[in-house]
Amino acid sequence: MAAGDYMAVRDAIKKIIPQSSYDDGSAGPVLVRLAWHASGTYDKKSGTGGSNGSTMRYKLEASDEANNGLEYARNLLDLVRQQFPWISYADLWTLAGVVAIEYMGGPKIGWKPGRVDDVDEQYVPPNGRLPDATQGEDHIRSVFYRMGFNDQEIVALSGAHNLGRCHADRSGFEGPWVPMPTRFSNTYFKLLLRSRWHKRKNSVGVEQYNDEDNELMMLPTDMALVKDPKFRAWVERYADDKDLFYRDFAAAFGKLLELGVIRGPEDKALRQYARAKL
Ligand code: HEM
After folding, report:
1. Which one is catalytic: 93, 177, 197, 234?
2. Could you tell me if the ipTM is greater than 0.95?
3. Which pTM was predicted?
4. Which of 94, 100, 103, 263 shows the smallest number of beta carbons within 10 Å?
């Protein structure tokens, strides 16, 4: 296969999404989570972290407990990489998130190649940069502002919880957010506003919010989006207007995947400069 044939890579990614014996029959959601966690370590001030460098290949980052379960996604993508050894892991992991969102009925997301893997283990960003689901609005803001996002973008990005589920053995939380967790939609926002959520301890003793039938769930951080008035205003808009949500999600997710990605001749020197400050 010709180097640089990203359409062929996209097709190979689509082929690994249906997984009949896994979760809801789809690897799509966990691929989205991998793209997000690979990117969400970015720190705007120091220029460190982000998807460039695919630092989750290293044990230090892979074993951050926020990344529990993502080896499933990385292993599946290793199969794709065997067919296209010219693609960087950093490009492959981010592209897989984009392809998965489109495959599940979400918006088209702008994606550009050019990320590299040439980062030494010593430059892996420290653990603890990804959000902690047991916390509230102050924590959410400090994590996402660090990456350079505003309140509107935080809420738009959170709409990804329309996809997939929580696993007791990965995060301690359990269950899906919506009844059809392999279709991208704005149902998550509608449910946040409409359902009665009650706090309960799940089967492993972790506090989460459930609907009346204990079928659907919300994390404490999800509930913070309806408690905080500034976040809530965006939840209401996205619940009402699916097209607006799709547009804003595509822009924010595209921005997330670009955090810390510098291309061109100055690339390597600038990255080394940023890493020296880790
Ligand atoms: C799953 C937390 C933001 C996409 C999860 C899980 C937790 C979590 C605890 C369950 C993991 C598991 O047990 O398997 C958070 C927190 C966030 C946040 C605290 C911010 C405050 C985001 C963002 C995205 C995202 C910004 C993407 C744009 C996903 C997806 C899943 C997921 C797709 C489902 C994964 C699967 O089905 O395996 N998140 N998340 N999350 N998250 Fe988030």
Report:
1. 177
2. yes
3. 0.96
4. 263
